[in-house]
Amino acid sequence: MTTEAIRVFNRPPRHIPRRVVLIVVLLFFAVVFAMPLLWMISASLKPENEVLQSPPTFIPSEFQWGNYSQAGHGLLPFFLNSCKLAALNVGFLLLFASLAGYGFARLNFAFKNLAFALLLSTAMIPGIVYLVPQYMLFRQMGWIDTHYPLWVPNVLTPVFGTFLLRQAFRGIPIELEEAAKLDGASIFGTFWRIMLPQVKPALAAVGALTFMGSWNDLFGPLIFLNSTRLQTMPIALALFKGEYFTQTNLMMAAATLTILPPLLLFLLAQKYFVQGITMSGLKG
Amino acid sequence: MPASEISRRSVLRALGIGGGALAAGLPLAACGSNGSGGGGGGGNASWMTWDTESGTPMYTMAQNWAKQAGKTLDIQSIPGDDYDTKLRTVLSSGAAPTAIRINDDYVRGYYAEGSLLDLRPYLEKDGIKPEDYFPVAYNFAKQPDGAHAAWPIMTNPGILYCNTDAFAEAGVELPPKDWAKSGWTWDDFLEAAKKLTKPNGERWGALVFPDSSLETVFPTSNGGDGIYSKDATRFTLAEPQGTEAIQWVADLSLKHKVHPDFATVTAGKQTPNWALAQLGTGKVAMLLGLTSGVPYLRSNAKVKWDIFPTPMKVSRTTVNTLTVLAIPKASKDPDTAWSFLKYAVGAESAKLLAQSRGFMPVAKSSSALFVPDDKAPSNLALVTQALGSAVNENFSRYIERARTIYRPVLDDVWSGKKTAEAALGGVKQKVEDVLAGKG
Question: Which of A153, A165, B9, B245 could form a disulfide with B222 if both were Cys (CB 3.0 to 4.6 A apart)?
Answer without folding.
Answer: B245
